[in-house]
Amino acid sequence: MDLWFTESHTENVRFSVKVDRQLYSEQSDFQRIDIFDSCEFGRILVLDGFLMLTEKDEFIYHEMIAHVPLSVLPKAENVLIIGGGDGGTAREVLRYETVRHVDLVEIDEAVVKACRQFLPQTAASFSDKRLQCHFEDGLKYIRRCENQYDLIIVDSTDPFGPGEGLFTKEFYGNCYKALKPDGIMVNQHESPFYKEDAYAMQRAHKRIYDSFPISRIYQAHIPTYPSGHWLFGFASKKYHPIIDANWKEWKKLGLKTRYYNPKVHAGAFALPNYVEAIINEVE
What we know:
Layout: E1 3-10, E2 13-27, E3 32-38, E4 42-47, E5 50-54, H1 58-72, E6 78-83, H2 88-93, E7 101-105, H3 109-118, H4 120-123, E8 131-134, H5 138-143, E9 149-155, H6 169-178, E10 179-188, H7 195-211, E11 214-221, E12 229-236, H8 247-252, H9 262-268, H10 273-280
Parallel strand pairs: 6-7, 6-9, 7-8, 9-10
Antiparallel strand pairs: 1-2, 2-3, 3-4, 4-5, 10-12, 11-12
């Protein structure tokens, strides 16, 4: 008998992946955590029935959420990651030798434990001495921070359940306060394609746009995320994501990437007209 994991993208659309076996399942204090071994995508992480990452395409998401801001700030020293319990974003950030310290704030310690056991491809970063984990609510953590970070990466789940508070105006305002005068915030911004996802994206962008003097959206193609068309938000106190990108310094680092490069970086901010229309409604 064939086994399949199926995620509902809308009431009328479902995405299915054939799986070999279920490796892990737990109901934590916050959510249901499942890890499957799949035929096409390798191991996959699922939270509350929603696919968070697969071994085959996680590099796209993690490279784009980390290297886009770090090419603008290639000498960033202090970084905050909110969410990111799989470790993939931290893995990319910690490839920069100039990064001296990373605080990772993950509300659910059970996610980190499961990923360390079953997803070493992303979770290897947890052994880096520069990384400190805080198992608490990111919304509460950020309230205590001021003028502290060069870069904040909001690697959250979708805007409901444990991740709901990370899409509020209060949260983005606190992120602004926690950044240094030239700081940058990047967040995963949902998909613009399906109606409900587009509304969540639009609402989040409005709140970020009202909180930061520079606010732009960029995109990537991630095959296993709803519609495959995924957005990220770039918000900054000072730097433009393309004009101020320091690609000369970034290239000197000699980082080998599978998806990200300076041309992809610049092109990612050229959005389709239908996405521009959604954004223009709230700007």
